[in-house]
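REQUEST FORM: STRUCTURE PREDICTION
Request ID: SP-0412
Submitted by: Lab K.M.
Chain count: 1
Length (residues): 192
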Amino acid sequence: LKPQVVFVSTASELEAFMRTLEQQKIAVYVAGPKTLDEIFKSIERIGEIVGNPRRAEDLVQNLKSRAAAARGPVSYGSRPKVFVQVDKDALYTVGSDSYITDLVSRVGGVSATADLPTAYPKISRETALAMNPDVIIISASSSNREPNEAFRNSPAVKSGRVYRVDADLLSRPGPRVVDALEQIAEKLKSER
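STATUS: Completed
RESULT:
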């Protein structure tokens, strides 16, 4: 295809591919955002790279405005403990390096897994069971629609506070992540 630039969201698993691109003198832009603000910076940088910085700035201003409107309460006492399930069977979740942890915090939740290292750690059923979340957010895909069995006695499952957010919105660090943020905010507002 002879691209001038290739955009990737993380370089960790693409080393061989990156070497091939470098050998062919193809520019690579790697974005590994850990927060919503870093996603915004990536959007602006991509706008610069493709020669349309003004459009990117306008988009980011709109997204920032929407994100600010979705912000949750500041009081810690009213913040539900939220578990984000990325994969039901393998029990992948979000950790300290995931922008999704930032999204949960921005809308008034406390991520049950915020202290876990890396962006997407795999946890054991025993660890999941001990988390006892108030709310479960499922990054919904065809194979990830229900909470893992480890959560069957959690406050989240017992009270029906299990919410699905389309994985295409939640798991892609681009403009549509604000759609996911708004959905999570709406679901957590019903918690109060």
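NOTES: The radius of gyration is 18 Å.
Reviewed by: T.R.
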